[in-house]
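Loading example: each entry is read as three labelled lines plus one structure line.
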Amino acid sequence: MSEPIIAARDVDVFYAEKQALFGVDLDIAAKQVTSLIGPSGCGKSTFLRAINRMNDLIPICRFSGSLKIDGQDVYDPAVDVVALRAQVGMVFQKPNPFPKSIRENVAYGLKIHKMTTSKSELDDRIETSLKSAGLWDEVADRLDEPGNGLSGGQQQRLCIARTIAVEPRVVLMDEPCSALDPIATAVIEELIDELRQDFTIVIVTHSMQQAARISQRTAFFHLGKLVEVGDTDAVFTNPREERTQNYITGRIG
Amino acid sequence: MIDFSKSAGFDLAARHRAETRFRWVGRIAILISLGFLAWLLVTVFAGGIGTVRQVEIAVSVDLGADNVDPSDIRDASFGKLVKSGLRGMFPTVKKRKDKKKLYNLVSPEGAFELERRAIADPSILGEVRPVWLTASDDLSLFVRGKIDGALPEDQRPISDKEIAWIGQLEAAGQIRQVANWRFLTGGDSREPEIAGILAALVGSALSLGVCFLLSFPLGIMAATYLEEFAPENRLSDVIEVNINNLAAVPSIVFGLLGLSIFLGAMGLPRSSPLVGGMVLSLMTLPTIIIAARASLKSVPPSIKEAALALGATPVQAVFHHVFPVALPGMLTGAIVGMARALGDTAPLLMIGMVAFIVDVPKSILEPATALPVQIFLWADSPERAFAEKTSAAILVLLLFLIAMNLVAILMRRKLEQRF
Amino acid sequence: MESEHIVGRFDKDLTKIKNDILKMGALVNAQIKGATDALMELDTAEVDRLVATDRKINGMAKKVHNRAERLIALRQPMALDLREALLAIKIAGELERIGDHAKSTAKRVRKLSDNANAGAVLNSVGEMSAKVQAMLTDVLLAYRDSNIELAAEIRDRDPEVDDLNKSIFAGAITAIGENSADAETLVHVIILARNFERVGDHVVNMSRQVHHIVTGKDLKASA
């Protein structure tokens, strides 16, 4: 595996007194899709949100351990969390476009980070992002219409376009397809497959089939611990741990 | 075969009866409320609508050169001219008491009216001519049918003789009713027939303007800070409880506060819309804060989360995304607060807006009065004609309220259109 | 052993496949025994029955194939379950071919019934048959119990079968050299021995498949 871009060492996360993650050691490689699977409450979403420090928004949440992106500890006091989130993007489970026009949605990140210098440059980047997200053909003629007017799958692609517009190094996805129908899901899975050429993607998913389809590396979490991590085809055809096998074959215990 | 009919069991009959009962209870409640409302509106409307018309008397006045000097019009004594005109129209009236009654046909304002007209249009000078002057309040009420002529003479404010004269004047076409624009364009007066609402209207508008400008920005900013940025600790809880309590404080307490601080310590002009507005804003602020906080709470947190995940700072996330969505709701809360401020008399009384104000205030520092205070003053007056004016003033207050609500609805709709 | 699936019917479907294989295996084993007995007694009456039974064996292989196909489509099995479904098809295929060998052995009885001189070499063939029958019985047990030690042991017994095949061949060649009149019979015997050697190879394949189901890795063809 090439040099990992995200390296977690001995990561513990607590919600007040309740511990949600126990000593997680995980490496995530660049320009690949890594999926985090496991039953509900196993800590995979908590781990994902620790990467871009969205857990900071929860006052009772405490982090300990080391989480480095590109060699830098993101919990170091010298790190500006705004700069972190500008370069580590997130797509959420329920599509949440801003109640503004499609254009304004995609442009928002570019505007607040002052990443473009002219209107034509802004328009170009909006077009590029929407094209990368596979949404351009459907919305090119109605960029000024509200984002909420799109269908669920389109809204999620809009959120993806919005996230990749600022060209982050890493894109985190928290069950991005769980609110979508199978066809919209397939469209987004195809999109993820194309995006991985340019971005490092970490995706939390409830669907093992989805993890099997789109990721190159899979990490299985159970009760807050990382049980197994490996190449996706190995994890799903012949996992090392019995707990992993029980989960992916739908067994009790 | 499955039974889906009413007799299928499942306690259907009793439950449907309960449904019907509740619906009727609801309907009856609404009907009773609407009934009271209708009664109020009809009573006020019927009582005040008469103000729309004003009665005028045509008096033949001698404006000849020996009575009025064209080069110095003000010097003439128009009161005497009016009286002599009246005497001329009723030459048989000789007794002093009767003459007094005769002069009473014209409003005391009549002389000033004549003077103003002469100054404005000197071409009417130089001859005897009939001039339309405002009738007195009792005459006005009688002509418009508000005084019952059938009552015995000692039970009515107008005597038989006056009724006879009125009959004569009407037969000669010297009494007419015209639209009473003065009600809306003039200030208060001792004479009910010429009293107007404008001074109070402008006073209310200015006070509310000051109140809105002070309380709305302050209120929504405070609410935004408390809801979105303040750390969740005991201090925030204490502040929240105190704001909730302040919203329930009787408004007269704010009046006392205004009296001692704004008037006493700060020495601001008494009875001015500035101080009135400041006192009202103290009263309205808690209401606005509570409504604004509720509106902010109702914004789905996913929007803010998305903005933060994109790298927005907390202030950017709140002001670019949460605030615009919450703004229509905040406006509604503000209007509720404003409506209360419009009708609240007690605090304004404490800071002195209870004076008799004739002139329309031109700035927020001049003494003024407010609509509810004016209503109170007129309701308190002994003259019968002021009863009609009170109802009319209440109508104006209600219309003002409706207008404010319409403005708020329009603004809200415009904001909501921006998704 | 393995814990149960949360969806009970999944376990039932897997069990049905396993039972089908075991039934098929028992029937194939009986075919081998029947064919060998017919051979020893040169009983042509049995041959027709054995040939007819082979059609039933082919039908059972098809049934296993269909069940496995359905399970893969409907249950999306992963890891262990996927291997059980896929390799059941292969095991059924091996059993079908063993059945074919038993059938051709039986048909050869018709041809041998005229001549009675094969005696000694036929006994060796009988010995081979007994060995592969034992191997088949054991490999079915290994499949039923997911017993990879037994599977490896079965693989290690195959060289005995191969050795028997070689000695029968050598003996037959010698006998032909001595008396060429028996050549036809002895050629049949050589072919019969080769049939049974092939059966042994198929059983070794089955034991490798059992090992693969359980471990996910290959078992070497020979130790």
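The domain at 198-416 of chain B is CATH 1.10.3720.10 (MetI-like fold).
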